[in-house]
């Protein structure tokens, strides 16, 4: 899935081989699915014959553990999806360097750390389900706010607030979900639960980059082609050449590289300017599509919280002191 942005999903772009004229991506994913099915069958077989499996699959039948794993998967998917989009915007659209980009994204790390500590204390007063749902709602609104700041000029106050809100939402999730997974099993199953937890986190991170990345690159190609085709400043002949050149997909590059490529191709100044303008607009539209997808994923993740513990923590009632005998 990570290679899909390079190889293409179905239509081959830079696929090492093209089975039946399709990209290698779908065939590798199918092979991975077959291996996973074989792994599950082998674990069931070892349990049936009384051997110790790598992981007891019945653990996934525990509602709280299953919901915690889904939450960790969603958290990493959303976070890594956003972290794929934001550096593209800061570095390739605004032209910031790596250090400046890191500073702009610093509020996420700081507020995530603070919210994680605060979330641990909130768990003594509110249920885990309420805290996790609050974190997801904060994440949705933060990503939507971040989407509004994706524009040619940098909207620093709104961007900083959005990144801080994202850190708060992710921190509230992080403060609860790991504990849910580990507390759902007894001591004998915690090693396996930890393995499932790590697997869910890594799978979420990989899919976040793969899915959001593929969406951004596909949106960039489609939007750029449509804008060039409909731009009256660009002749139909040049528009056709551009469409053919980007048919298999284009990489997310800076506008300086697009301008250099157009100049090298011998295009006149007005046509070059029009192509660069169209590419800038396509960049912003593709990035917004990626952030919107991340917000929708966060919203859909609310469905996975139904099986989280909903009971408020029990607080021992204070007793009045016994009367002093006279």
Give an account of the 3D structure:
By secondary structure, the chain is mostly helical. The protein is 69% helix and 0% strand. The longest helix is centred in the middle third of the chain and has 41 residues, at 190-230. The chain is flat, with a radius of gyration of 25 Å. The protein starts with a helix and ends in a 26-residue tail after the last helix. Residues 315-326 have low confidence and may be disordered.
Shape: flat
Rg from alpha-carbon coordinates: 25 Å
Order of helices and strands: HHHHHHHHHHH
Reported for the largest beta sheet, the result is: none
What percent of residues are in strands?
Answer: under 5%
How would you classify the helix and strand content by structural class?
mainly alpha
- Span between N and C termini? 80 Å
How would you concisely characterize the structure shown here?
With 326 residues, the chain is an all-alpha fold. Helix content is 69%, strand content 0%. Mean pLDDT is 88; it is low at 315-326.
Question: What descriptors fit this protein?
Answer:
single chain, 326 residues, 11 helices, 69% helix, 0% strand
Task: Summarize the SSE layout with pairings.
Elements (H helix, E strand, L loop, with lengths): L3 H4 L16 H25 L14 H31 L4 H7 L1 H17 L5 H21 L7 H28 L6 H41 L5 H10 L9 H10 L4 H32 L26
